[in-house]
């Protein structure tokens, strides 16, 4: 038998989302959607900054679990790129911040001048941030793949 509220042959209904204010708006509490006739999903717990999902040794971090439980209906946005190309800045601007804000308050920390001079990565492993609209943003360290390695010259 088809689920309650649906007729045989009718496509199953999906939750209704409305994205607004790039994660800065307040989402309404769960309520009955008059069109669909079912409860809307509650927004995830509001995050103020990114959290480590995978550490620099590629191990899962326990601190992320509380944000990921019961979060199965999400959109995931990730970014890969060379060191210092602005991955963290782009992810911060897409998820919660505006260009007018102080970059030190961005949800994903951009590479500092000191780190740039040392040639190190600001992001290690994978950091994540979840918006009230259930969009998961993943900021990654530079992958250890040949395509991302700096050019090298072999002298014989």
From TrEMBL:
Keyword set, alphabetical order: Nonsense-mediated mRNA decay
Superkingdom of the source species: Eukaryota
Cell membrane found in the keyword field: no
GO biological process: nuclear-transcribed mRNA catabolic process, nonsense-mediated decay
Keyword Nucleus: no
Annotated PANTHER family: NONSENSE-MEDIATED MRNA DECAY FACTOR SMG9 (PTHR14270)
Family, as annotated: Belongs to the SMG9 family.
Protein name: Nonsense-mediated mRNA decay factor SMG9
High-level lineage: Eukaryota, Metazoa, Chordata, Craniata, Vertebrata
């Amino acid at each position: 038998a088809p689920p309650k509220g649906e007729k045989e042959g009718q496509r199953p209904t999906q939750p209704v989302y409305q994205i607004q204010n790039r994660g800065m708006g307040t989402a309404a509490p769960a309520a009955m959607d008059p069109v669909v006739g079912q409860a809307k999903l509650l927004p995830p717990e509001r995050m103020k900054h990114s959290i480590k999902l995978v550490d620099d040794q590629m191990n899962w971090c326990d601190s992320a679990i509380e944000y990921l439980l019961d979060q199965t209906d999400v959109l995931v946005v990730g970014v890969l790129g060379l060191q210092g190309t602005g991955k963290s800045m782009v992810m911060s601007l897409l998820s919660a911040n505006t260009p007018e804000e102080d970059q030190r308050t961005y949800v994903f920390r951009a590479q500092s001048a000191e780190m740039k001079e040392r040639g190190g990565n600001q992001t290690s492993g994978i950091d994540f941030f979840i918006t009230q609209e259930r969009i998961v943003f993943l900021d990654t360290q530079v992958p250890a793949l040949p395509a991302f390695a700096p050019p090298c010259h072999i002298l014989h």
